[in-house]
Amino acid sequence: MSDHRIETLEQLEALFDPPSEAAVRKEVSFVHPSYRALIEASPFAVLATHGPGGLDASPRGDPPGFVVVEDERTLLLPERRGNNRIDSLRNIVTDPRVALLFLIPGVGETLRVRGRATLTTEPAMLERFVMQGSRPRCVVVIHVESVFFQCARAVYRAGLWQPVPPEAARRVPSPGQILAALTDAQIDGEAYDRDLPARQRATLY
């Protein structure tokens, strides 16, 4: 095994062909109008951060355009209600480097953004993102450093936007079953699953 470990950039690069011209030129340091269209069509993104505890990737979602393109170098991401772990926000406070992966249902291409973030609770900013009468807890202000689209191969291989088989949900344990297993049934899994839909609807925003 150790004889086949890749430990240098030279070893790694020897495995791959050079990137095509398109793969290089699609990366820019600002939100091009074409990339703005992708962001405004996306209802879902994954936010990657880094902090004292290591790396973290967290889902973010809202109606399409929930991440606002303030200008070609600034994105605004409202922080909605969640589980109050605030792992991503803790990380941003200690290390501003972030990345975003935007997905659009039915579209194979994704969009990758890298930059540096700050958090704000400016009242006027929070008011811009009111949903169902609730303001976000804060807004993540992302100063863009790199933007490019990712080709659709991974989405195609995953069949991500294909119809979901009826038996798909039965293949994985429910949230309650997971919690019951992790806590040796100290958390009542059946009760958790029973109450979860109503709790999520009541605390969506």
Strand order in space, largest sheet:
2-1-5-6-7-4-3
Task: Tell me the CATH topology of the largest domain.
Answer: Pnp Oxidase, Chain A
Q: Approximately how much beta-strand content do the residues carry?
A: 25-35%
The CATH level-2 architecture of the largest domain is identified as Roll
Kindly give the count of domains. Answer: 2
Residue runs with pLDDT of under 50 for 5 or more positions = none
- The CATH superfamily of the largest domain is identified as Electron Transport, Fmn-binding Protein, Chain A
Mean pLDDT: 96
| Rg from Cα | 20 Å
Overall shape: it is globular
How many β-strand stretches? 7
Structural class: alpha+beta
Biggest β-sheet description:
7 strands, antiparallel
Helix content: 25-40%
Order of helices and strands: HHHEEEEHEEHEHHH
| Gap between N and C termini | 49 Å
Please count the helical segments.
8
Under the CATH scheme, which class of the largest domain? Mainly Beta
Question: How would you describe what is shown here?
Answer:
The chain is of the alpha+beta class. The protein has two domains: 22-158, Electron Transport, Fmn-binding Protein, Chain A (Pnp Oxidase, Chain A, Roll), CATH 2.30.110.10; 168-202, no CATH class. 30% of the residues lie in helices and 28% in strands. It has eight helices and seven strands; from the N terminus they run αααββββαββαβααα. The protein has helices at residues 9-14, 21-25, 33-41, 87-94, 123-127, 153-158, 175-182, 189-202; strands spanning 44-51, 54-61, 68-71, 74-79, 97-103, 110-120, 138-150. The protein has a seven-stranded antiparallel beta sheet, covered by helices on one side. A hairpin with a 2-residue loop joins β3 and β4. α7 packs across α8 (189-202). It is globular.
